[in-house]
Design goal:
The complex is a heterodimer of chains A (190) and B (195).
Chain A: H1 13-28, H2 30-53, H3 56-76, H4 79-84, H5 87-105, E1 114-115, H6 129-136, H7 141-153, H8 157-164, H9 168-189
Helix pairs in contact in A: 1-2, 2-3, 2-5, 2-7, 3-5, 5-8, 7-9, 8-9
Chain B: H1 3-8, H2 16-26, E1 30-35, E2 42-47, E3 50-56, H3 60-67, E4 72-76, H4 84-91, H5 106-115, E5 124-125, H6 126-132, H7 139-147, E6 160-161, H8 175-184
Parallel strand pairs in B: 1-4, 5-6
Antiparallel strand pairs in B: 1-2, 2-3
């Protein structure tokens, strides 16, 4: 797993270098490089989506679909466009756009090749996963997305503003208020 | 521990099915499943574009690896056309089933699309296909294209025979399977059952 920005807001140098290597590999040999994107970025994408949508299967579907769309998009991009991408916010923009329409489109979207064994359902949830679902349910949709993208995924507020298509000041306020609600919920529990 | 730190720790592993699902959904890997046919159990491989190959089940893994470079995973075909597969195998024509012929040349694709139009219960010589694709002298090249058909049974190359009535060769397990298939389809009469 890569080191995400976490609470500091400063992506580690190693992470930035990895992203640069990854983009170079994608630009020159998409098919061979793409599994590495899934490997390096899949974990944060899945768990971010898991916390935002509150449903394991839904998050798994969205993660898969995001990567499939990303792969198709990259296949149509010029090499330089791939090198210029901010890979993580770009991926999250795809994910959030999909998420917005996911439930509505679920019944009519083209069906993909599906694994026969539904192995994902056997994956253990985090120990306190259900408790965090309950706490995050106290936040409104914008606050929840902003808090998760900032502190679970590790995006910067400027990146979140782009992903959520909201002004950065509003995003900061959402994060602030969201964290406040979570803090109060935790205090009550104690 | 601050709440920010607690949130940062809310990350587990990637669910086991995700990487495979992405590989299948992008076509970087192909799915496969088993189906019954007139010549026994066959393996059908597919990707989001359609069915990409058919082979007899016995020993398919090694042959697939030699012929195609993509990884192979047991999977369900897309539900939009999954149900058409058994019918396409039984009828010996794609019908509504999408087939992925991106791996072959334009000429081979033309030959195979023409082969797919030969009705069940009938046979055609290689020269007939050559004429249909406007290359009447390219009978040998047609023979090569038919022999390399990646989707036998569904693209019914078993219905292509030599102009002298000899049954000709068959890549899917050998000529005995071609005889079995033509017998099953009632098209064996008048053919010479040797190469």
């Amino acid at each position: 797993m890569y080191g995400a920005a976490g609470a500091t807001g400063c992506p580690e140098l190693g992470f930035q270098l990895l992203m640069e290597d990854l983009k170079e590999a994608l630009a020159t040999d998409l098919d061979n490089a793409f599994p590495s994107v899934v490997e390096f970025m899949g974990t944060r994408l899945f768990w971010g989506l898991r916390r935002i949508c509150g449903d394991h299967q839904e998050a798994e579907d969205l993660t898969q679909e995001t990567f499939i769309r990303a792969y198709r998009a990259l296949g149509s991009y010029e090499e330089q466009r791939i090198r210029d991408l901010e890979l993580q916010p770009w991926l999250w923009t795809i994910a959030m756009n999909l998420g917005r329409n996911h439930l509505r489109d679920r019944s009519r979207r083209p069906t993909l090749v599906e694994m026969q064994t539904d192995v994902g359902c056997d994956d253990p949830e985090l120990v306190d996963g259900a408790a965090w679902d309950r706490r995050l349910d106290l936040l409104n949709r914008n606050q929840r997305a902003a808090v998760v993208l900032r502190h679970v995924v590790g995006l910067g507020t400027g990146e979140i503003a782009v992903v959520l298509e909201r002004p950065e000041g509003t995003v900061k306020a959402d994060i602030h208020r969201g964290l406040d609600r979570l803090r109060r919920a935790l205090e009550k529990e104690e | 521990m601050t709440i920010e730190t607690k949130l940062g720790a809310l990350v587990g592993g990637l669910p086991t099915g995700v990487s495979e699902g992405v590989a299948l959904g992008t076509g970087l890997a192909e799915g496969f499943d088993f189906y019954d046919s007139a010549i026994g159990l066959v393996v059908v491989t597919f990707n989001p574009e359609g069915v990409s190959s058919v082979d007899i089940a016995d020993g398919y893994e090694e042959r697939y690896a030699q012929r195609f470079s993509r990884p192979l995973m047991r999977a369900d075909a897309p539900s939009a056309w999954r149900s058409y597969i058994p019918e396409a195998i039984e009828r010996g024509t794609p019908g509504k089933l999408p087939v992925d012929l991106r791996a072959v040349t334009d000429f081979q694709r033309q030959v195979l699309r023409t082969t797919a139009t030969i009705p069940k219960g009938e046979v055609r010589p290689y020269g007939w296909i050559a004429r249909k694709v406007d290359r009447p002298r390219a009978v040998r090249a047609v023979g090569t294209a038919v022999a390399r058909n990646p989707i036998p049974l569904i693209i019914p190359c078993h219905r292509v025979v030599r102009s002298d009535g000899h049954i000709g060769n068959y890549s899917l397990g050998g000529p005995h399977n071609k005889i079995d298939l033509l017998e099953h389809e009632g098209a064996i009469e008048g053919l010479k059952l040797d190469l």
